[in-house]
Amino acid sequence: MTTIVVGGGIVGLSLAYGLLVQGRKVIVLDGTDEDFRASRGNFGLIWVQGKGFNCPPYANWSRQAATLWPDYASDLQKQTGIDLALSQKGGVSYYTNEADLAGQISKLESLRSAVGGDYPFEMLDHAALKRLVPEIGPKVIGGIYSPMDGHVNPLFLLRALSLAVRQMGGDVRTGNSVIDVKAADHDFTAVLANGDHVTGDALVLSAGLGALELGGKLGFTTPIRPQQGQVLITEKLPHFMNYASATLRQVNEGGVQIGASEAEIGFDDAEDMATIAGLARHAVDVFPHLARVKLVRSWAALRIMSPDGLPIYQHSPSYQGASFVTCHSGITLSTVHARLLPDWLAKEKTAVDLTPFSERRFDV
Amino acid sequence: MFRPLETSNSSAITFTFDNQPVTAIEGMTVAAALLASGYKSLRETPVSGQARGPFCMMGACFDCLVLIDDETVQACMVQVRSGLQVSRVPRMNKAGDRL
User: Fold this and answer.
1) How far apart are CA A53 and CA A117, in angstroms?
2) Which residues of A touch B62 (CB under 8 A)?
3) How far apart are CA A204 and CA A322, in angstroms?
4) Chain B: nearest CA to A132, how far in angstroms?
5) Alpha carbons B31 and B57: distance in angstroms, whole number
6) Pick from B47, B62, B73: CB nearest A238
7) Total-model pTM
8) How far apart are alpha carbons A217 and B25 in whole angstroms?
9) DSSP string across B50-63
């Protein structure tokens, strides 16, 4: 009764943690530092507003995930002693263009109706936003506040999950890529680069972009691609930012993290000066005092994107016991992955319905 | 206490740290010169106010920040020169104004 989790990032470890809570035996197979590791390069948002405009179930799924966060972070802290620096005071989106703001508000209003009305957000003009966030500059014409949003330290989350899985008896193998998978119903063998064979009666493919190489062997189409995002961080500043935004957040150690670009350039995780300058300009447009602040680091990472940007949850059509889980919002969704996906993996009758997120939605 | 491992043929120069004269050997970094002169803490962190000083000496940790020419820079990445004016990084308030 062992589940093989292929992929030791936030998604794989969240699943492993959830499976261990349910009493399953788990072996997590993590790759090497040469792999693309979204879990080490992401922005750390727990974000709801604006997700799922064309798919209300995704809006609900994200909202449910955010709602579970306080209890989840508390459980992980009890287990590991690690404070995840969770902050859910709400999120603010800043706008420098009236038409963009009006367009977003109209889309959010439609989504609010589509999910039954319980979807709090508020449009703020410059003056109202300045009362909430006094540091904004004159180019900010207004914004949107939503109490649904927040952020967390994603590296602390990764460490806490990694520690929790080990403490609860999970077997985590690092530094070894899975180079092959042999599959039959409820009988899986993962072959590691060092020649080791790992067997289990269930398997979850949660290897981020690494799933592209293994998916076909398990009956998945894995319609995912890399999308590059670049991120900057400033020197540490006194705490001034109470609310995260999709592009700016002050991390618990004091640095302001600035993100994130979106580039369709394949498996390329190198930064470039034009993108960095653009991100910095946006940050200074919102908070002019950041012009006097030093950037200390920049980096790029690759998002795992499906054709519609939504997660994929898919049971293998070929082999009983194999499932594919991937998303680009592994931080936000860590809670539901740990708490709700174990039942879905086991195809329990009471499991959450994830058919809106199957690979089949991309079938022509 | 920090001291040079070998005697240098380079000449001694003087720069200032918070307006106090500091003697150093040409070619030293500001961080090395300040450590050799007995300064361990160069600043306080903006978040907790704890003391910080040079740690990695190779540009990675950003703990040795000082103010030179009105810019916050890493003391371990700048070489001393005669007459250089170095000072502690001023504390900032939430709006980024120096206190």
Assistant:
1) 14
2) 235, 296
3) 6
4) 14
5) 7
6) B47
7) 0.91
8) 65
9) -EE---SSSSSS--
